[in-house]
Amino acid sequence: MEICPICEKGKLKPVKEKHVLFGVDLGTYPGEKCSECGELFTDSKYVEKIEKIAKEKGIWGIGQKTKISKSGNSLAVRIPKKLAEYLKLKEGKEAYIHPQDRKLIIELE
Ligand SMILES: [Zn+2]
């Protein structure tokens, strides 16, 4: 059995793994998972397929870096166009905002 190239301790075991991106199910594909660090290795042909499905569902590349800017006494988070379109966000729409550990959650109506 192959040794994990990441931690070099665990052994790679065949698994069927469900791939989820931003809460969207992209399907279940065979891969190999490390028994120590849990790193998942997926064959490149499946990686391509997963990427294709993510693109079809409009979620490919919608997670990205953004800048926080000043807006009066508050701070404003810039939401990229692609992400706004995916979530059907419009100016003036109300949302509930709160922290969760090191994440900022914006709940949409
Ligand atoms: Zn490992």
Question: Short summary of the structure?
Answer:
This protein has 109 residues and is α+β, with helices and mostly antiparallel strands. The chain has helices at 44-56, 81-86; strands spanning 12-21, 24-34, 40-42, 68-71, 74-77, 95-100, 103-108.
Order of helices and strands: EEEHEEHEE
Based on DSSP secondary structure assignment, what is the total number of beta strands? 7
SS-derived structural category: alpha+beta
**N-to-C terminal Cα separation, in Å?**
50 Å
Work out the helix count: 2
Q: In total, how many domains does the architecture comprise?
A: 2
Shape: elongated
Oligomer: single chain
Give the proportion of residues in helices: 10-25%
Task: Write a structural description.
There is one protein chain. With 109 residues, the protein is an alpha+beta fold. It has two domains: 12-56, no CATH class; 68-108, Pemi-like Protein 1, Chain: D (Ribbon), CATH 2.10.260. The protein contains two helices and seven strands, in the order βββαββαββ. It has helices at 44-56, 81-86; strands at 12-21, 24-34, 40-42, 68-71, 74-77, 95-100, 103-108. The protein is elongated and about 60 Å long. The chain starts with 11 loop residues before the first strand and ends with a strand.
